[in-house]
Amino acid sequence: MSGRTHTRARPERTCVGCRKRAAKNDLLRIVMIEDACVPDPRGTLPGRGAYVHPAPVCLDQAVRRRAFTRALRAPRALDTNALRRYVEQTTVAEQATP
């Protein structure tokens, strides 16, 4: 044996909110459907995707910087209400589990 450890390469993506790189499965994929940002937790919806940490802080930064509009190549500002509800629900659920 060569003594090297064989680790699998894990895909990384950049959060559009905080601009930090993280493993793809640690981030939430966002897609544009009509004029709204929609969460895609399974990563199976068609179309261009953007990634964000599922945390209100990163979501607020992305909205303030208009990062979703740029990353998804949208012609105008996108509605993020459904996305905000999803992130708030997952944050509350994570805090409730011990």
Describe this structure in words.
InterPro entries: YlxR, YlxR-like_sf, YlxR_dom. Residues 13-75 form the YlxR domain. Pfam families: YlxR (PF04296). The chain has 98 residues and is α+β, with helices and mostly antiparallel strands. It has one domain (11-93): 2-Layer Sandwich (Hypothetical Cytosolic Protein, Chain: A). The chain is built from three helices and five strands. The strands form two sheets. Strands 4-3-5 form a three-stranded antiparallel beta sheet. It is globular and about 55 Å long. The relative contact order is 0.19.
Features of the shown structure:
YlxR; globular; Hypothetical Cytosolic Protein, Chain: A; YlxR-like_sf; 31% helix; 98 residues; three-stranded antiparallel beta sheet
Summarize the structure.
The protein has 98 residues and is α+β, with helices and mostly antiparallel strands. The protein has 3 helices and 5 strands.
Roughly how many Å apart are the termini?
42 Å
* Rg calculated over all Cα atoms: 15 Å
What is the general shape? globular
- The strand order across the widest sheet is 4-3-5
Could you give the count of β-strands?
5
CATH superfamily: YlxR-like
How many DSSP H or I helices? 3
Q: Kindly estimate the percentage of residues that lie in beta strands according to DSSP.
A: 15-25%
CATH-defined topology = Hypothetical Cytosolic Protein, Chain: A
* H/E element sequence: EEEEEHHH
Residue stretches low in confidence (pLDDT < 50, at least 5 long) are none
Protein name: YlxR family protein
Domain YlxR: 13-75
